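In response to reviewer comment 3 from the previous cycle, which asked for concrete evidence that the modeling workflow produces usable outputs, we include below a single protein chain processed end to end. The sequence was submitted unchanged, and the resulting structure tokens are shown without manual editing.
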Amino acid sequence: MAKDRYAPKTLDDLMAGMSNKLSSYAGKSQKLAHFQALFEQSISAPMAKKCRVSNYRDAIMVIETDSAAVAMRLNYMKMSILSDLRKNGLPELSQIKVQTNPQAFTNRTTPSSQKEKNSQKKDLVLSEDTANSLLEVAKSAPPSLREKLERLAKHSKK
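The workflow returned the following structure tokens.
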């Protein structure tokens, strides 16, 4: 008799399969974090903020960057990074591939830093000197620009 694939499974069977998958994901995540630390040692700190190790398989490291300019810079540095990584704990590494993925870096800001940026924007105030300078420029500006400069000058702290 053939095995019924639609037969209900016990909760223990389901959890056993899930725990194996979760442990393999956790192990891969730890390895990638270790590779990221090694990678950051071989490049400058500003550059490290713009790229990350996204995968490591078959002795090939895949690095994602936030822009094509950073990817091009990494491609120029690829051989020196490769030799540094081989010296510092990845002797089997054979190749580095650089990919551009701007979406991977869009959500890197923390909510607290977003709040700080918003509060800084609210604290910006136009000074009286700046308002006076805008009004002086508005006197010799065309009518459409004059209206806009005058409206902007009204935002000064009086």
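The longest strand covers residues 51-57. We consider this sufficient to address the reviewer's concern, and the full set will be provided in the supplementary archive.
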